[in-house]
Specification:
Helix content: 40-55%
Number of strands: 4
Number of domains: 2
Shape: elongated
Strand content: 5-15%
Order of helices and strands: EEEHHEHHHHH
Largest sheet: 2 strands, antiparallel
Length: about 160
């Protein structure tokens, strides 16, 4: 078993039991699933530009003692009993499932588009823009598919996209 509580999110340095650490003031960084923790203010500062926080602060916290941590883990096991091994394993995507796309799927990397617009103009981007961009991409892709089919190819090439 590990002799530390958790690892710092950016630098992966161990944060020991009963040791001081920092968390981000932005709620999305503090969710249970995200759970970002930082061993120093420098590590916290390194994550702020990456996450595009406009106004973020670091809250100082103290890691639980080893006894507290073990008690929390035991309680969590009692509350949610262990699931069968089959349920614990991540779902393996079958090849036919990986190609299923619905009409409403976003086809762009949202964070990349938002970062591009911010870098070019300093502006924020509404989430609704992603749906419209995805619709435009679908139109372009459908036209490119038709051109490839007209040329009796099973591969869409760059020259098919206009």
């Amino acid at each position: 078993m590990e002799n530390f509580w958790r690892k710092c999110t950016p630098c992966k340095k161990p944060i020991g039991f009963n040791q001081k650490y920092w968390v981000c003031s932005v709620s999305t960084c503090n969710r249970q699933r995200t759970g970002l923790v930082f061993c120093s203010i420098e590590c916290f500062d390194s994550h702020v530009p990456v996450m595009n926080h406009r106004d973020a602060g670091a809250f100082e916290r103290r890691a639980p003692t080893e006894a507290q941590w073990k008690a929390e883990q035991a309680l969590a096991t009692q509350v949610a009993p262990s699931a069968p091994v089959e349920q614990k394993l991540k779902k393996v995507v079958q090849p036919e499932e990986s190609h299923q796309v619905t009409e409403n799927d976003v086809l762009v990397v949202v964070s990349k588009v938002k970062a591009y617009i911010r870098a070019r103009s300093g502006m924020n981007t509404s989430d609704r823009v992603m749906d419209l961009l995805s619709d435009r991409i679908r139109v372009l892709a459908d036209e490119a598919i038709r051109r490839a089919e007209q040329n009796e190819r099973k591969t869409v090439l760059d020259r098919d996209v206009h």
